[in-house]
């Protein structure tokens, strides 16, 4: 007869909740950041184009410089926001990636795929998720801000 499995400790629940709170806060920042950048980009483009046609490119660039600086800072912020992901020290199943509780008792096999966790290569450390698209968004913002004055003056 198998032994009853004890309930997980409050410490492991606190670790899980704190990492999910960090992840949610990060995504809220990304959501509002993208919407703010879309608004700033639209205002910057319209203002720069109108000023450029009325006063010339040099004056337009000088007057819209705060918007350009904000967009560049946001692009750099997106790059660094997603550079470091939340990382858990708890191991995961080597076959399917199912998260194993950090404190014993552990089941002998993965409940998801049935892989044996008692083997030497049965578990692996968890890896942070890959957020290449967010880094590329930040790089794209930096490139767009660099090319915006040139493109608008050519229009």
Tell me what the structure shows.
The chain has helices at residues 10-55, 57-63, 65-81, 132-154, and strands spanning 91-93, 123-125. It has four helices and two strands, in the order H-H-H-E-E-H. Helix 1 (10-55) runs antiparallel to helix 2, helix 1 runs antiparallel to helix 3 and helix 3 (65-81) runs antiparallel to helix 4 (132-154). It is 60% helix and 4% strand. The model is unreliable at 5-19 (pLDDT under 50). It folds into two domains: 11-86 and 129-154; 88-127, no CATH class.
Rounded mean pLDDT score: 68
Largest sheet: number of strands, sense, barrel closure: 2 strands, antiparallel
| Principal-axis shape | rod-shaped
Helical fraction equals 55-70%
Total domain units: 2
| Global Rg | 24 Å
Number of strand segments: 2
């Amino acid at each position: 007869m198998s032994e009853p499995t004890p309930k997980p400790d409050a410490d492991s629940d606190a670790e899980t909740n704190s990492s999910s709170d960090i992840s949610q806060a990060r995504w809220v920042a990304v959501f509002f950041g993208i919407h703010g950048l879309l608004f700033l980009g639209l205002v910057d483009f319209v203002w720069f184009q109108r000023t450029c046609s009325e006063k010339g490119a040099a004056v337009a660039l000088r007057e819209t410089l705060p918007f350009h600086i904000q967009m560049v800072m946001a692009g750099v912020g997106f790059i660094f926001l997603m550079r470091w992901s939340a990382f858990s020290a708890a191991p995961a199943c080597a076959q399917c990636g199912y998260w194993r509780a950090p404190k014993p008792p552990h089941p002998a096999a993965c409940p998801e795929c049935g892989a044996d966790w008692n083997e030497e290569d049965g578990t692996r450390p968890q890896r942070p998720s890959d957020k290449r698209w967010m880094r590329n968004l930040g790089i794209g913002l930096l490139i767009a801000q660099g090319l915006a004055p040139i493109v608008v003056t050519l229009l």
